[in-house]
From TrEMBL:
The keyword Transmembrane applies. It is a multi-pass membrane protein. This is COPI associated protein. The lineage of its organism: Eukaryota, Sar, Alveolata, Apicomplexa, Conoidasida. Keywords: Membrane, Transmembrane, Transmembrane helix. GO terms for cellular component: membrane. It is found in: Membrane. It comes from Gregarina niphandrodes (Septate eugregarine). The chain crosses the membrane at residues 31-54, 60-80, 92-113, 125-144.
Length: 169
């Protein structure tokens, strides 16, 4: 293949819409808003659970779990808060938890966070409710991922067909 053939391949190749692909991988905006509300609920429920200072002495593991849940809630807010821009917390999460950049990874992570909240049972009803909510959001994200995965595979296969078929003309 000479240089002109490669130029034709590059010219005829369909444009790759990075922003559109990113939005498609992150999930629909209403679901992202529900997830951000779940992150706020996890933070508030955990902060209210930490107000019991006696828990530090008699149950320090529960106190530590509340700290983790606050950090996880802040992570959810940072991931889903598109208007927050590129802040350092969001970049930290994307760097060390790269699976949070796609819908399926977010769903599994949110379900895990919700299960941590459910671990309290009915000892802390607010945290239990926030945990149930986050598990539900995680399941919805996983269901969206299965539908998106099929459509993205179809788009990828079509783009590969167009690219490969244009090389031979």
């Amino acid at each position: 293949m000479n240089k002109n053939d490669w130029n034709a391949v590059l010219r005829d190749r369909p444009a790759f819409d990075v922003k559109g692909m990113r939005e498609e991988l992150e999930g629909p905006a209403p679901i992202r808003a529900f997830a951000a509300l779940g992150g706020v609920a996890m933070c508030l429920a955990s902060a209210l659970g930490m107000l019991n200072v006696i828990k530090v002495v008699f149950n320090p593991v529960a106190y530590l779990l509340h700290l983790y849940l606050i950090a996880f809630g802040m992570s959810v807010i940072a991931i889903e808060g598109k208007t927050l821009g590129e802040n350092s917390w969001k970049m930290f999460v994307y760097r060390w938890l790269p699976f949070t950049t796609v819908v399926g990874g977010k769903g599994l992570m949110y379900a895990f966070f919700g299960l941590l909240g459910l671990a309290y049972g009915f000892q802390d009803f607010l945290l239990f409710a926030a945990g149930c909510y986050m598990v539900a959001v995680g399941v919805v994200y996983c269901l969206i991922h299965t539908a998106k995965f099929e459509s993205l595979n179809e788009k990828y296969a079509k783009s590969q067909y167009v690219t490969r078929s244009s090389m031979y003309y």
